[in-house]
Amino acid sequence: MSIDLDSAVAIVGLSGRFPGADSVGALWDNLAAGVRSIRPLTDQERRALAPEAVADPAFVPVTADVAGAEYFDAEFFGFTADEAAAMDPQNRLFLECVWEAMEDAGHDPMGPSMPVGLFAGCGFPSYLARLSGQRGVDVAPELRRESERMLYAVGNDRDSLCSMVSYKLDLRGPSIAVQTFSSSALTSVHLACQSLLGYETDLALAGGVAIHTPQATGYRYDEVGTQSPDGSCRSFDADSRGTVIGNGLGVVALKRLADAHADGDHVYAAVLGTAVNCDGGARAGYAAPGRGGKARVAAEALANAGVAAGEVDYIEALGLGVMVIDTIELSALAQVYAPAHAPRSCPIGALKPNMGHLEHASGIASLIKTALMLHHRTLLPTIEHTEPNALLAAPDSPFRMQTTAAPWERRCGSPRRAAVNSFGIGGTNAHAILQEAPEPPERPRPHAGAPHLLPVSAQTPEALEAAVARLRAHLQRRPDLDLRDVAHTLQTGRTPFAHRRFVVCRGVPEAIAALGADDPARTSAEAGAGAEGEGVVRLPDDDALSDLTAELRAVDPAYGAAAEECEATLRACAGHEEAPGTGPEVATFVAHYALGRTITALGVTPRLVTGQGVGRLAAGCLAGTLTMSDALECLRAGGPWPTDDHCAAVEPDGVVIEVGAASAAPGVIPAFSPDLCRAEGARFALYELAGRLWLAGFRIDWAGLHPDGPGRRIPLPTYPFQSRRHWID
User: Origin, by domain of life (predicted)?
Assistant: First the structure.
């Protein structure tokens, strides 16, 4: 089945924090290696607990925790230390993960030129209890200050989870908290897809978070509860006895697949269809699952995706590890998938044995795992599985447990497809059908050996060094990357901050070497984020222009168009269509004027243009105080030259361009220096100029640097948050 680009949704960005994994990449490594991230409590953690709790024979001393939950880069997001300490770690880490998901998708988190929606669910705000004991939240309501109540509400209420992110990142699409217990995250994905397909948003973020405070407490086993007596979770196993509650969060960035292809986005996988429903009242109790609703939601998702049940190769189940709940889930899935599958032909898996039940984040963790499997074309193992339970072992069961890592082979040439299942207390069920990403459209190949500009910025000097180191390490791990894609992603998919560094290079090895060199001329702490830059650009004098003209005309469209404008005007002035004369003064004028237009094509507006000699004519044309025909007529007639040295442009802010002038003013940015042009070429010199203008704080129109067409957005290291401890002890 060919994919319908207009009805499918692309997963273009991923981020998350999980037990034993502080990133999506680390999660993949752990799952591929079959790592169990449910760990025993340390001696120090045990000593922090009540002695009678630890001594209880029913006490189970395990945790599945997210490391560093008490840390947060408050300054980066504009929070005071008091505000950060009063904020639930769920809300804080979710904000960081949304930023990372947008960067992973190659979109500037602070500068999306499209409506962006946010949908997510959040676990119970248990951090508020810590505030109650330390900050007096439990005093009589009439004695609390309104500002104090608002501080705790905004920082801890689940209603603020999404809207706070939208406020901090200036996201203008719908911002909706989704609370359906364990199906919150996958329900959020469903709503995000609906928002995209209804053209309410052009980029949507969806996810969930559940972090308990404190995390490392263990728990008391209760025979009538759902938690495991031994700290292990065995999904669909004959020895399933309960689950383990874990901690974690995840976010996915989504776009319409047609738009993702048109925009050059990296696509992990495609969402073909989703569905959400409720079990209603046909079950044993409010907290009990029902089979009928779960079967219906799977059938509805398949219908919405336009996919037959037999075309699904793998199912990522909730797999709670509680025998009765696992049996209901398997029975519901079999009702839909068994008629189309031979016995034991469809692999099934679950995350719970690796990291426990992430509650409100469980659905997004399952979706991320499945998207990564499709992306890497690898089936991951489900650990802690020894013997299938009775329903899974039945002769007519369509499912078999995937217990080893294996290549995901296509069946009869059909695309790889998977289903993700989720449900929660209260009966809300969610189901999604995924497919491997289709091949992206072809694009022109870049010129061999063409230079590329890699800009890196951060809020602090320490973060800048960390960002450069991360990028360098990534390129060392991935020498196969197309540097055009790296440059495009860094140029258009990152927020520009005050501390900046850039390199111009022709290949990955050269980029690695340049990033490892601390070049003060390519580093700045003066550029204000979002502020207009300041600087003086000096164009070369007459003697240095001859070698530039031919090369720049061939590689820079703005230069070529400006040169053609001059020549067309000269022909009109001469009254014939023959090629104009190329005397030295005419050639100098054309080069100066075209170089000025090359600078403005980078998005940099001149506020003042000065010149000497022939440069005065080019300066007047660039400033708009002299017409092209008047300037060329003056050249043809051999004078008289304008007497003004300065030609003011109309813009109050921008760069000062010195045309053919020698200047000793501090901060002058030399453009197209003869030595650099001879050594590296005019195109390299153009990129060097763009980098120095960006370093000075100017906003660059990066499209002007890509005559071969822009690169694709690709996953690159995200911002290195400089987190500090913000916690109520």
Answer: Bacteria
Q: Which residue has the tokens 């020895």?
A: 239
pLDDT tens digits, residue range 64-123?
Answer: 999 999 999 999 999 999 999 999 999 999 999 999 999 999 999 998 789 999 999 999
Question: Whole-model pTM?
Answer: 0.94
The residue among 121, 77, 90, 106 whose CA lies nearest residue 14 is 106
9-123+158-436: which CATH architecture?
3-Layer(aba) Sandwich (3.40)
- Residues 194 and 545: their CA atoms lie apart, in Å, by 57
Of residues 308, 307, 391, the one with CA closest to residue 348: 391
Q: What angle do CA 413, 416, 420 make, to 5 degrees?
A: 155
SS3 412: coil
Round to whole Å and give the CA distance between 457 and 501: 6
Query: pLDDT tens-digit profile of 27-39?
Result: 999 999 999 999 9
Q: Residue 671 and residue 464: Cα distance in Å, rounded?
A: 26
CA nearest to 279, candidates 425, 428, 431: 428
Q: Is the dihedral of CA 524, 525, 531, 537 positive or negative?
A: negative
With H, G, I as helix, E, B as strand and everything else as coil, classify residue 728: coil
CA gap 478, 475 in Å, rounded: 5
Q: How confident is the model at residue 532 (pLDDT cuts 50, 70, 90)?
A: low
- Domain coordinates of the chain in residue numbers? 9-123+158-436, 453-524, 536-698
Is the previous residue joined to 640 through a cis bond, with omega within 30 degrees of 0?
yes
Residue 143 has pLDDT above 50, yes or no: no
Query: Quick one: pLDDT at residue 525?
Result: 64
Fold of the domain built from segment(s) 453-524: Alpha-Beta Plaits (3.30.70)
Mean pLDDT of the chain: 90
